[in-house]
Structure formats: structure tokens, C-alpha cells
Amino acid sequence: MTDVASLERRLAEHRTRIEGVLEALFHDRNEVSTRLEAAMRHGVLGGGKRLRPILVYVTGRALGAAPDALDAPAAAVELIHAYSLVHDDLPAMDDDDLRRGNPTVHKAFDDATAILAGDALQTLAFEVLARSSHPRLGALVRSLTEASGRDGMAAGQALDLNAVGAQPSVDALVEMHRHKTGALIRAAVRMGALTAVAETDARVAALDRYAAAIGLAFQIHDDILDITGDTATLGKTSGADAAREKPTYPALLGLDASRRKAKGLLDEALEALAPLGENGSPLAELARYMIERDH
């Protein structure tokens, strides 16, 4: 059984660490544009679960990586996630006014500044990785680029936009979310693993199966929370997916079937951790947390 208090304490420690790493990226800079810097800070330093960098830290530590070696990949994956949210929130995309309980970047600044801030956060991610000089830097960069671009997150967002007002099959919805949400979660786990071991290590493949399952379970639970949660707890507008006629798991399967689907994916993730033995326990706890959270 998961010790909730202990898990929350460890998650808080990881969040504190990544917050410090991200804050340091904005310290002691001779800013060319103070407005752009402010918008970037608003987009990445405004709180959040920090789930993706936590996955980097927990995976890397499970395989023996030192925390210092994990800082750059953890920051890079969160910067990519932040840029995607800044752009997704724009009027041309999801047109959201609220993110993490604060005005979205285009509301706090303007549309053009939000576009530039997202662009700059994206490139900063790869600058952070490039400066790390990790011996498997090429594999780390490849993992992040593949997860972010035309075969990953960007493709998933395109599928999402095309699905508005439609009734796709469950298989089509799975395909969309494996790219839009799942790809970056898989990259976070993979980058944590590759910081510690080579790509040929059998545990990397096992962790990829784990990440694929939790990535989809996470999105299903997100869809559930959009219906069952409230705006104050979620930090974003509840019921927004239904209002935009976006396809979701509960809309296609119903709430109970969606919960069963998420639980089945959790079981798949836990089975995939078998090659890690006891070292996989923190990842198992994190997987359970991902489908039990309230925001």
C-alpha cells in the first residue's frame, strides 16, 4: 500500500528541485526584451504538477543516476511542456483564459507575445540539453525531438483540432492522446533512463511500456477530472472539453468504463516494472498517484 504522506513529501522534494533549476535559467541575465522574459517566466514558473520532470528524476534515480545529471533533461522536458501549453491556450487553438489558476500567457500579455514566449521556451529546452554535455546527449535530444514534433505532440494537437465536433472511434482517440499527451510522458521516462543506462539495456524497453500505459491512463483521468472536478481545484476551467465539443473518453465510454480503462492501464504499467524489482517501487507509487489525483 502506498504511504501517501511519504509520497507527497518525495514529490514535493522533486518539485522544489526542478523549480530551482528552472528559476536559475532566468537569473543574472542581460535581457534583450524584458517583456518576452516576463512572458516566458509566466508560462513556465507559474506552478503546476511538474509531473514530467518528476518522471525524469524518479526513473533516473531508480536506475542509479545522480540527481545533478538529471537536472538538464528534467528542465528540458518541462520547458517543452510549458511551451506547448502556452501555444495550446491561444485563441487559434483551445482559447483558454486560465492555466494553473492564473491568466494564460496571451491573456496576461497578448497573443503575439505568447507565441514568441512559446517559441523561446521550446528553443531554451534544447539549449539546456546541449549545455549539459551528457555522454548520451544525442539519444536524449532525439527522444525529446521525436516526442515533441511532427510524429509526437504536435501531431497529436493537430489530430485534436481536427476532432472537434466529431465522434471518433475509441481507437482514434487513443491514437490522438498517445501523441498529444503520451509522447512527452514517454520521453520523460526514457530520458531519465538514458541518463543512467544505455539504450540497449532491457530495462529501457520495459520502462517504455510502463510510460506508454501511464501516459494514456493520465489522459483518461484528465478527461474524467474535466467532468468531476471544479475550476478552483483544477486550476483551469472545468467542463471546457464538453463546451468545445472535444471528444473525450467519458463522452465515448462513460465515466465508469473510463475509470475501468484507466485502472487496466495502471495494471499494465505495474506489470512492466517487473524487471526493475524493488527499484521500481517509486515508479509504481507515481503511477498510482497519476490516476488518483484531484487536479
Notes on the structure:
With 295 residues, the protein is mostly helical. It has one domain (4-290): Farnesyl Diphosphate Synthase, CATH 1.10.600.10. The chain has 16 helices and two strands. A two-stranded antiparallel ribbon has the order 1-2. A hairpin with a 2-residue loop joins β1 (98-99) and β2. α3 (51-62) runs antiparallel to α4 (67-88), α4 runs antiparallel to α6 and α7 packs antiparallel against α10. The longest helix has 27 residues, at 202-228. The radius of gyration is 18 Å and the shape is globular. The two termini are 22 Å apart. 41% of the residues are buried. The model has no long low-confidence stretch (mean pLDDT 92).
List the helices and strands and how they pair.
Elements: H1 4-24, H2 34-44, H3 51-62, H4 67-88, E1 98-99, E2 102-103, H5 105-108, H6 111-132, H7 137-148, H8 153-163, H9 170-180, H10 182-196, H11 202-228, H12 231-234, H13 240-243, H14 249-253, H15 255-272, H16 281-290
Helix pairs in contact: 1-4, 2-6, 3-4, 3-10, 4-6, 4-10, 7-10, 8-9, 10-11, 11-15
Strand content: under 5%
Rg measurement, Å: 18 Å
CATH topology: Farnesyl Diphosphate Synthase
Uncertain stretches of 5 or more adjacent residues? none
| The CATH H-level homologous superfamily | Farnesyl Diphosphate Synthase
Name some characteristics of this structure.
Prenyl_diphosphate_synthase; Farnesyl Diphosphate Synthase; transferase; two-stranded antiparallel sheet; Polyprenyl_synt
